[in-house]
Design a protein that fits this description.
Number of helices: 9
Number of strands: 8
Number of domains: 1
Strand order of the largest sheet: 3-2-1-4-7-6-8-5
CATH topology: Spore Coat Polysaccharide Biosynthesis Protein SpsA, Chain A
Strand content: 15-25%
Helix content: 25-40%
Radius of gyration: 17 Å
Distance between the termini: 19 Å
Length: 233
């Protein structure tokens, strides 16, 4: 278990090298030196475009942030975070996306300061994404390693796009540990005209998700997870 003050940013990505570069540049331009940050990407084994990109980066080292890569099978979105987490060294974990851009200076210091207002760091800290109404849905957020250990996941591994963020938001709202702060993590999504529509969107967030909806509607399972976190408050 990590005991350092690092923030680990988990990012599933597929066939979007340009997003990887833009994401890392936005992180490097906005971080405070007071809190170290690492980025861990999850890349599908069949994604030759991204695999080739990281091979080139290993030689050039131009991403400007500390970055690691986990390669694995194509799995549901929730499980990509769980797999990437296995390489995480930080005590604070962010679930992110490759179409996010960090816009607030010293966001890492502000996030960590807010999280440790709560005992054991048990909170879901999030900011504005430019899409959802402020303070409502933690589309991309920060959670503590202690909470991940208690729940057994970063995101439920069997949930796909669009509902794992709802799941976590509701859990932390129910335990009174959902914390919105005025930082801006811009979600440059195609749905709001900030990115071109591509295969990753088509097969991901824009695809049918009946299985994920069924899990989201399983309130017994949700309340069971809520109870797990209440035990460590």
């Amino acid at each position: 278990m990590s005991t350092n003050n690092k923030i680990s940013i988990l990012v599933p990505t597929r066939k979007r090298p340009q997003n990887i570069v833009a994401l890392c540049e936005s992180i490097s331009k906005t971080v405070s030196d007071l809190v170290p940050v690492e980025v861990i990407f999850y890349v599908d084994n069949d994604d030759e475009v991204t695999k080739d990109f990281f091979k080139q980066q290993a030689e050039k080292n131009t991403l400007k942030v500390s970055a690691n890569v986990v390669f694995g099978d194509r799995v549901k979105l929730g499980q990509t975070y769980n797999e990437a987490y296995k390489k995480a060294d930080g005590d604070v974990i962010m679930y992110c996306a490759d179409d996010v851009r960090f816009r607030t200076l010293n966001w890492n210091y502000l996030v960590r300061q807010e999280m440790y207002r709560y005992s054991g760091g048990i909170a879901l800290v999030f900011g504005y994404d430019g899409v959802q109404p402020k303070g409502t849905l933690a589309t991309h957020g920060f959670i503590h390693r202690n909470a991940i250990d208690a729940l057994g996941y970063v995101h439920p591994g069997d949930i796909g796009y669009n509902y794992s963020d709802n799941w976590l938001t509701e859990i932390y709202r129910q335990i009174g540990r959902l914390s919105y702060i005025p930082v801006y993590f811009e979600h440059c999504h195609w749905g709001v005209g900030k990115a071109p529509y591509d295969e990753t969107y088509r097969l991901g967030s824009d695809a049918p998700h009946q299985e994920s909806i069924s899990i989201w509607e399983d309130k017994d399972r949700l309340y069971s997870d809520i109870a797990k976190l209440k035990k460590i408050l």
